[in-house]
């Protein structure tokens, strides 16, 4: 396991080292999520959603469009 470091700026920002970006396939516009555990943070790349897949999924989500659940 290789340890790579980066410093926090006065604005609380960090630069993700090039080696890390390359290994994780990070590109401009990617979203990262932070999971905080006790004394550490795990950073993960949030998978991007394929717009065509999301468009195809839309018709299957109609159960939230009816008002039957509003009365419960």
How would you characterize this protein structure?
It is built from 2 helices and 2 strands; from the N terminus they run αββα. It is an alpha+beta fold and 72 residues long. The protein has a single domain, classed as Pemi-like Protein 1, Chain: D. The protein has a two-stranded antiparallel sheet with strand order 1-2. Strand 1 (32-37) and strand 2 form a beta hairpin. It starts with 17 loop residues before the first helix and ends in a 15-residue tail after the last helix. The relative contact order is 0.10.
> What value does the average pLDDT take?
86
Count of separate structural domains:
1
Helix run count: 2
Give the N-to-C terminal Cα separation: 52 Å
- Tell me the strand percentage band: 15-25%
Short description:
The protein has 72 residues and is of the alpha+beta class. The chain has helices at 18-24, 51-57; strands at residues 32-37, 40-45. The radius of gyration is 19 Å and the shape is elongated.
């Amino acid at each position: 396991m290789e340890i790579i470091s980066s410093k926090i700026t006065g604005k609380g920002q960090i630069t993700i080292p090039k080696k890390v970006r390359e290994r994780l396939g990070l590109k401009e516009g990617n979203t990262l999520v932070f999971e905080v555990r006790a004394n550490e943070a795990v950073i993960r790349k949030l998978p991007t959603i394929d717009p065509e897949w999301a468009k195809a999924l839309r018709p299957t989500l109609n159960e939230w469009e009816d008002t039957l659940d509003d009365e419960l």
